[in-house]
Amino acid sequence: MTGEPLPLADVFRRIIRTSGPISLAHYMAESNARYYGAKDPLGTTGDFVTAPEVSQMFGELIGLWCADVWIRAGREEPVHYVELGPGRGTLAKDALRAGRRYGFEPMVHFVETSDPLKDAQLGMVPGAIWHDDLSSVPMTGPVIFVANEFLDALPVRQLVRMEQGWRERMVGLEGDRFVHVAGAQPMEGAVPPERMDAPLGTIIETSPAAAAVVYEVAGRLAEQGGAALFIDYGHAEARTGSTVQAVAAHRKVDPFSAPGEADLTAHVDFATLARVAASRDARHLGTVTQGDWLRALGIEMRAEALAAQAPQYAAEIAEARERLIAPHQMGDLFKVMGLVAPGWPDAVGFRER
Ligand code: SAH
Fold this sequence. Notes:
- By secondary structure, the protein is of the alpha/beta class.
- The strands form three sheets. Strands 2, 3, 4, 5, 10, 14, 15 and 16 form an eight-stranded mixed β-sheet that branches. Strands 1, 6, 7, 8 and 9 form a five-stranded antiparallel β-sheet that branches. It has a three-stranded antiparallel β-sheet with strand order 12-11-13.
- It is built from twelve helices and 16 strands.
- Bound molecules: S-adenosyl-L-homocysteine.
- S-adenosyl-L-homocysteine binds at residues 32, 36, 42, 50, 52-53, 85-87, 91, 111-114, 117, 148-150, 153.
Protein backbone atom coordinates (compact mmCIF):
# COMPACT_ATOMS: atom_id res chain seq x y z
CA MET A 1 0.00 0.00 0.00
CA THR A 2 1.33 3.46 -0.83
CA GLY A 3 1.51 6.18 1.82
CA GLU A 4 2.15 3.73 4.69
CA PRO A 5 5.17 4.88 6.68
CA LEU A 6 8.11 2.48 6.90
CA PRO A 7 7.78 0.40 10.09
CA LEU A 8 9.63 2.20 12.87
CA ALA A 9 11.69 -0.94 13.58
CA ASP A 10 13.12 -0.69 10.06
CA VAL A 11 13.83 3.01 10.48
CA PHE A 12 15.73 2.30 13.71
CA ARG A 13 17.68 -0.58 12.12
CA ARG A 14 18.77 1.67 9.29
CA ILE A 15 19.89 4.42 11.68
CA ILE A 16 21.78 1.98 13.94
CA ARG A 17 23.53 0.29 10.98
CA THR A 18 24.54 3.64 9.55
CA SER A 19 25.60 5.54 12.64
CA GLY A 20 25.71 3.15 15.59
CA PRO A 21 23.54 2.56 18.67
CA ILE A 22 20.84 5.09 19.58
CA SER A 23 19.98 6.23 23.09
CA LEU A 24 17.06 4.64 24.91
CA ALA A 25 15.53 8.13 25.13
CA HIS A 26 15.64 8.43 21.33
CA TYR A 27 14.11 4.97 20.96
CA MET A 28 11.33 5.78 23.44
CA ALA A 29 10.55 9.27 22.09
CA GLU A 30 10.24 8.10 18.49
CA SER A 31 8.30 4.99 19.46
CA ASN A 32 5.70 6.92 21.44
CA ALA A 33 5.41 9.69 18.83
CA ARG A 34 4.62 7.01 16.24
CA TYR A 35 2.36 5.10 18.64
CA TYR A 36 0.20 8.03 19.78
CA GLY A 37 0.23 9.61 16.33
CA ALA A 38 -1.30 6.54 14.73
CA LYS A 39 -4.34 5.76 16.89
CA ASP A 40 -6.42 6.18 20.03
CA PRO A 41 -4.96 3.49 22.30
CA LEU A 42 -7.31 3.99 25.25
CA GLY A 43 -10.18 1.89 26.52
CA THR A 44 -11.13 -1.75 26.72
CA THR A 45 -10.81 -2.29 22.96
CA GLY A 46 -7.45 -0.49 22.88
CA ASP A 47 -4.18 -1.15 24.66
CA PHE A 48 -4.74 0.22 28.18
CA VAL A 49 -7.38 1.80 30.43
CA THR A 50 -6.65 4.95 32.44
CA ALA A 51 -8.38 6.23 35.60
CA PRO A 52 -10.67 8.76 33.87
CA GLU A 53 -11.87 5.96 31.58
CA VAL A 54 -12.64 3.78 34.62
CA SER A 55 -15.14 6.21 36.14
CA GLN A 56 -16.46 9.77 35.89
CA MET A 57 -15.71 10.08 39.63
CA PHE A 58 -12.00 10.51 38.89
CA GLY A 59 -12.40 13.60 36.71
CA GLU A 60 -15.16 15.03 38.88
CA LEU A 61 -13.02 14.95 42.02
CA ILE A 62 -10.15 16.56 40.13
CA GLY A 63 -12.56 19.29 38.97
CA LEU A 64 -13.65 19.90 42.57
CA TRP A 65 -10.00 20.12 43.64
CA CYS A 66 -9.32 22.72 40.93
CA ALA A 67 -12.41 24.78 41.80
CA ASP A 68 -11.68 24.61 45.53
CA VAL A 69 -8.08 25.81 45.33
CA TRP A 70 -9.01 28.55 42.85
CA ILE A 71 -11.89 29.78 45.05
CA ARG A 72 -9.75 29.82 48.19
CA ALA A 73 -7.01 31.71 46.34
CA GLY A 74 -9.49 34.52 45.54
CA ARG A 75 -11.31 33.51 42.31
CA GLU A 76 -8.98 35.49 40.06
CA GLU A 77 -10.09 35.68 36.40
CA PRO A 78 -9.31 34.89 33.69
CA VAL A 79 -8.15 31.50 34.90
CA HIS A 80 -6.72 28.79 32.63
CA TYR A 81 -7.19 25.03 32.87
CA VAL A 82 -4.26 23.39 31.13
CA GLU A 83 -4.25 19.63 30.69
CA LEU A 84 -1.16 17.81 29.44
CA GLY A 85 -1.82 14.73 27.30
CA PRO A 86 -5.62 14.73 27.78
CA GLY A 87 -6.18 11.39 26.00
CA ARG A 88 -9.82 11.22 24.92
CA GLY A 89 -10.72 14.39 26.85
CA THR A 90 -12.79 12.41 29.36
CA LEU A 91 -11.01 13.72 32.46
CA ALA A 92 -11.36 17.34 31.28
CA LYS A 93 -15.03 16.93 30.44
CA ASP A 94 -15.83 15.45 33.86
CA ALA A 95 -13.62 17.94 35.74
CA LEU A 96 -15.02 20.99 33.97
CA ARG A 97 -18.61 19.86 34.49
CA ALA A 98 -17.97 19.41 38.22
CA GLY A 99 -16.06 22.71 38.53
CA ARG A 100 -18.74 24.71 36.71
CA ARG A 101 -21.17 24.08 39.57
CA TYR A 102 -18.83 26.14 41.75
CA GLY A 103 -18.33 28.94 39.26
CA PHE A 104 -15.00 27.60 37.95
CA GLU A 105 -15.25 28.31 34.22
CA PRO A 106 -11.68 28.51 32.97
CA MET A 107 -10.29 28.91 29.48
CA VAL A 108 -9.33 25.38 28.46
CA HIS A 109 -5.98 24.51 26.92
CA PHE A 110 -4.86 21.06 25.84
CA VAL A 111 -1.20 20.18 25.23
CA GLU A 112 -1.42 17.29 22.81
CA THR A 113 0.57 16.08 19.83
CA SER A 114 -1.57 13.14 18.65
CA ASP A 115 -4.00 13.91 15.81
CA PRO A 116 -6.40 11.01 16.51
CA LEU A 117 -6.60 12.03 20.17
CA LYS A 118 -7.09 15.73 19.30
CA ASP A 119 -10.15 14.64 17.31
CA ALA A 120 -11.52 12.76 20.31
CA GLN A 121 -10.83 15.75 22.60
CA LEU A 122 -12.60 18.13 20.24
CA GLY A 123 -15.74 16.03 20.57
CA MET A 124 -15.56 16.09 24.37
CA VAL A 125 -14.53 19.72 25.00
CA PRO A 126 -15.41 21.79 21.92
CA GLY A 127 -14.14 25.11 23.30
CA ALA A 128 -10.59 23.97 24.03
CA ILE A 129 -7.47 25.49 22.50
CA TRP A 130 -4.69 23.09 21.45
CA HIS A 131 -0.96 23.56 21.96
CA ASP A 132 2.06 21.49 20.90
CA ASP A 133 3.85 22.43 24.11
CA LEU A 134 3.51 24.88 27.00
CA SER A 135 5.27 27.77 25.30
CA SER A 136 2.09 29.07 23.61
CA VAL A 137 -0.12 28.90 26.73
CA PRO A 138 -1.07 32.51 27.74
CA MET A 139 1.34 34.24 30.13
CA THR A 140 -1.29 36.08 32.19
CA GLY A 141 -3.81 34.77 34.70
CA PRO A 142 -3.46 31.83 37.09
CA VAL A 143 -3.13 28.37 35.59
CA ILE A 144 -4.46 25.11 36.98
CA PHE A 145 -2.44 22.28 35.41
CA VAL A 146 -3.61 18.67 35.31
CA ALA A 147 -1.63 15.73 33.90
CA ASN A 148 -2.74 12.12 34.26
CA GLU A 149 -0.46 9.42 32.86
CA PHE A 150 1.43 12.02 30.84
CA LEU A 151 4.88 12.09 32.45
CA ASP A 152 5.22 8.29 32.24
CA ALA A 153 5.06 8.48 28.44
CA LEU A 154 8.05 10.83 28.21
CA PRO A 155 11.45 9.37 27.28
CA VAL A 156 13.93 8.27 29.92
CA ARG A 157 17.66 7.99 29.84
CA GLN A 158 19.53 5.16 31.56
CA LEU A 159 23.08 4.91 32.86
CA VAL A 160 24.53 1.50 33.73
CA ARG A 161 27.58 0.53 35.79
CA MET A 162 29.85 -1.72 33.72
CA GLU A 163 33.31 -3.22 34.38
CA GLN A 164 34.77 -0.30 32.47
CA GLY A 165 32.77 2.32 34.43
CA TRP A 166 29.44 4.14 34.01
CA ARG A 167 28.03 4.16 30.49
CA GLU A 168 24.77 5.26 28.85
CA ARG A 169 22.48 2.29 28.13
CA MET A 170 21.91 2.39 24.37
CA VAL A 171 19.92 0.40 21.84
CA GLY A 172 21.93 -1.57 19.29
CA LEU A 173 21.42 -4.57 17.02
CA GLU A 174 22.29 -8.25 17.13
CA GLY A 175 21.37 -9.39 13.66
CA ASP A 176 17.89 -7.89 13.26
CA ARG A 177 17.13 -7.93 16.98
CA PHE A 178 17.29 -4.83 19.20
CA VAL A 179 19.51 -5.30 22.26
CA HIS A 180 20.86 -3.11 25.04
CA VAL A 181 24.47 -2.09 24.49
CA ALA A 182 26.77 0.18 26.47
CA GLY A 183 27.61 3.56 24.98
CA ALA A 184 31.21 4.38 24.11
CA GLN A 185 31.63 7.46 26.31
CA PRO A 186 32.40 7.42 30.04
CA MET A 187 29.39 8.85 31.93
CA GLU A 188 30.84 9.26 35.44
CA GLY A 189 30.12 12.99 35.23
CA ALA A 190 26.37 12.33 35.00
CA VAL A 191 26.19 9.99 38.03
CA PRO A 192 25.13 11.36 41.43
CA PRO A 193 28.09 10.99 43.86
CA GLU A 194 26.14 8.74 46.26
CA ARG A 195 25.53 6.23 43.44
CA MET A 196 29.06 6.19 42.03
CA ASP A 197 30.10 2.95 43.80
CA ALA A 198 26.85 1.06 43.17
CA PRO A 199 27.25 -2.65 42.29
CA LEU A 200 28.03 -3.70 38.71
CA GLY A 201 24.89 -3.80 36.60
CA THR A 202 23.14 -1.01 38.55
CA ILE A 203 20.92 1.12 36.33
CA ILE A 204 20.08 4.75 37.03
CA GLU A 205 17.05 6.01 35.16
CA THR A 206 16.27 9.70 34.69
CA SER A 207 13.74 11.62 32.65
CA PRO A 208 15.15 14.94 31.50
CA ALA A 209 11.92 15.44 29.50
CA ALA A 210 9.71 15.07 32.60
CA ALA A 211 12.01 17.36 34.58
CA ALA A 212 11.76 19.97 31.80
CA VAL A 213 7.94 19.87 31.88
CA VAL A 214 7.80 20.27 35.67
CA TYR A 215 10.40 23.04 35.50
CA GLU A 216 8.19 24.95 33.05
CA VAL A 217 4.97 24.29 34.99
CA ALA A 218 6.53 25.38 38.30
CA GLY A 219 7.91 28.52 36.64
CA ARG A 220 4.43 29.38 35.34
CA LEU A 221 2.97 28.89 38.84
CA ALA A 222 5.56 31.23 40.33
CA GLU A 223 4.94 33.86 37.61
CA GLN A 224 1.18 33.61 37.12
CA GLY A 225 -0.27 31.89 40.17
CA GLY A 226 -2.11 28.61 40.09
CA ALA A 227 -1.78 24.97 41.05
CA ALA A 228 -0.81 21.67 39.46
CA LEU A 229 -1.68 17.99 39.83
CA PHE A 230 0.59 15.34 38.34
CA ILE A 231 -0.87 11.86 38.59
CA ASP A 232 1.13 8.86 37.48
CA TYR A 233 2.47 5.53 38.53
CA GLY A 234 5.83 5.84 40.12
CA HIS A 235 7.65 6.20 43.40
CA ALA A 236 8.01 8.98 45.92
CA GLU A 237 11.69 8.17 46.74
CA ALA A 238 14.66 7.80 44.39
CA ARG A 239 15.44 4.21 43.29
CA THR A 240 17.69 2.32 40.92
CA GLY A 241 16.80 -0.14 38.14
CA SER A 242 15.00 0.03 34.82
CA THR A 243 11.23 0.60 34.93
CA VAL A 244 10.71 0.82 31.18
CA GLN A 245 7.81 -1.33 30.04
CA ALA A 246 5.65 -1.78 26.99
CA VAL A 247 1.94 -2.58 26.92
CA ALA A 248 -0.22 -3.62 23.98
CA ALA A 249 -3.74 -5.04 24.13
CA HIS A 250 -3.64 -4.91 27.97
CA ARG A 251 -0.54 -7.14 28.17
CA LYS A 252 3.08 -6.43 28.91
CA VAL A 253 5.20 -7.00 25.83
CA ASP A 254 8.93 -6.78 25.12
CA PRO A 255 9.72 -3.04 24.60
CA PHE A 256 11.98 -4.06 21.71
CA SER A 257 9.48 -6.31 19.92
CA ALA A 258 7.57 -3.76 17.84
CA PRO A 259 8.54 -0.11 18.40
CA GLY A 260 5.68 2.27 17.66
CA GLU A 261 3.05 -0.43 18.17
CA ALA A 262 3.02 -0.60 21.98
CA ASP A 263 2.81 2.06 24.70
CA LEU A 264 6.26 2.59 26.21
CA THR A 265 6.32 3.99 29.73
CA ALA A 266 8.59 4.37 32.72
CA HIS A 267 7.83 4.97 36.40
CA VAL A 268 7.86 8.62 37.40
CA ASP A 269 10.53 9.71 39.88
CA PHE A 270 8.44 12.12 41.96
CA ALA A 271 11.23 12.91 44.44
CA THR A 272 13.34 14.43 41.68
CA LEU A 273 10.36 16.29 40.22
CA ALA A 274 9.48 17.79 43.63
CA ARG A 275 13.04 19.15 43.83
CA VAL A 276 12.77 20.56 40.32
CA ALA A 277 9.51 22.32 41.28
CA ALA A 278 11.04 23.72 44.47
CA SER A 279 13.98 25.08 42.47
CA ARG A 280 11.51 27.44 40.80
CA ASP A 281 9.76 28.45 44.01
CA ALA A 282 6.58 26.45 43.46
CA ARG A 283 5.32 24.94 46.72
CA HIS A 284 5.26 21.13 46.82
CA LEU A 285 2.10 20.19 48.74
CA GLY A 286 3.13 16.57 48.82
CA THR A 287 3.14 13.35 46.85
CA VAL A 288 0.53 10.89 48.13
CA THR A 289 -1.00 7.68 46.87
CA GLN A 290 -3.96 7.94 44.51
CA GLY A 291 -6.03 5.91 46.97
CA ASP A 292 -5.38 8.31 49.85
CA TRP A 293 -5.92 11.34 47.68
CA LEU A 294 -9.24 10.19 46.22
CA ARG A 295 -10.48 9.15 49.68
CA ALA A 296 -9.55 12.58 51.07
CA LEU A 297 -11.50 14.16 48.19
CA GLY A 298 -14.57 12.11 49.13
CA ILE A 299 -14.71 9.36 46.52
CA GLU A 300 -16.65 7.10 48.88
CA MET A 301 -19.44 9.66 49.30
CA ARG A 302 -19.46 10.41 45.61
CA ALA A 303 -19.80 6.70 44.80
CA GLU A 304 -22.72 6.40 47.22
CA ALA A 305 -24.46 9.42 45.71
CA LEU A 306 -24.05 8.04 42.18
CA ALA A 307 -25.32 4.63 43.25
CA ALA A 308 -28.36 6.24 44.90
CA GLN A 309 -29.17 8.05 41.63
CA ALA A 310 -28.69 4.92 39.53
CA PRO A 311 -29.19 1.83 41.71
CA GLN A 312 -29.05 -0.45 38.66
CA TYR A 313 -25.35 0.51 38.32
CA ALA A 314 -24.46 0.20 42.02
CA ALA A 315 -22.21 -2.82 41.49
CA GLU A 316 -20.33 -1.20 38.59
CA ILE A 317 -19.85 2.01 40.58
CA ALA A 318 -18.48 0.09 43.58
CA GLU A 319 -16.16 -1.87 41.31
CA ALA A 320 -14.84 1.31 39.67
CA ARG A 321 -14.25 2.92 43.07
CA GLU A 322 -12.25 -0.11 44.19
CA ARG A 323 -10.23 -0.14 41.00
CA LEU A 324 -9.24 3.48 41.59
CA ILE A 325 -8.41 3.26 45.31
CA ALA A 326 -7.73 -0.35 46.35
CA PRO A 327 -4.04 -0.78 47.29
CA HIS A 328 -3.51 -3.79 45.01
CA GLN A 329 -5.21 -2.06 42.08
CA MET A 330 -4.44 1.60 41.17
CA GLY A 331 -4.59 2.92 44.73
CA ASP A 332 -0.97 2.48 45.83
CA LEU A 333 1.09 2.35 42.66
CA PHE A 334 -0.33 5.63 41.36
CA LYS A 335 0.79 8.80 43.10
CA VAL A 336 -0.58 12.33 43.08
CA MET A 337 1.88 15.22 43.30
CA GLY A 338 0.41 18.62 44.18
CA LEU A 339 2.08 21.96 43.55
CA VAL A 340 0.81 25.48 44.19
CA ALA A 341 2.08 28.94 43.44
CA PRO A 342 3.92 30.71 46.24
CA GLY A 343 1.25 32.51 48.28
CA TRP A 344 -1.53 30.12 47.23
CA PRO A 345 -3.36 28.21 49.96
CA ASP A 346 -2.95 24.54 50.80
CA ALA A 347 -5.19 22.30 48.74
CA VAL A 348 -7.30 19.29 49.66
CA GLY A 349 -5.84 15.80 49.77
CA PHE A 350 -2.27 16.48 50.85
CA ARG A 351 -1.22 15.96 54.44
CA GLU A 352 -0.01 18.92 56.45
CA ARG A 353 3.71 19.32 55.90
N1 SAH B 1 -4.46 11.66 30.31
C1 SAH B 1 -5.15 10.69 29.48
C2 SAH B 1 -4.23 10.00 28.45
C3 SAH B 1 -3.00 9.33 28.95
S1 SAH B 1 -2.06 8.62 27.61
C4 SAH B 1 -5.86 9.68 30.35
O1 SAH B 1 -5.60 9.65 31.54
O2 SAH B 1 -6.67 8.93 29.82
C5 SAH B 1 -0.79 9.83 27.32
C6 SAH B 1 -1.28 11.11 26.67
O3 SAH B 1 -0.16 11.98 26.50
C7 SAH B 1 -1.90 10.96 25.29
O4 SAH B 1 -2.91 11.92 25.15
C8 SAH B 1 -0.71 11.24 24.38
O5 SAH B 1 -1.07 11.57 23.07
C9 SAH B 1 -0.04 12.37 25.12
N2 SAH B 1 1.38 12.56 24.86
C10 SAH B 1 2.35 11.63 24.92
N3 SAH B 1 3.55 12.19 24.67
C11 SAH B 1 3.33 13.50 24.45
C12 SAH B 1 4.17 14.62 24.17
N4 SAH B 1 5.48 14.48 24.06
N5 SAH B 1 3.59 15.83 24.03
C13 SAH B 1 2.26 15.99 24.16
N6 SAH B 1 1.41 14.97 24.43
C14 SAH B 1 1.94 13.75 24.58
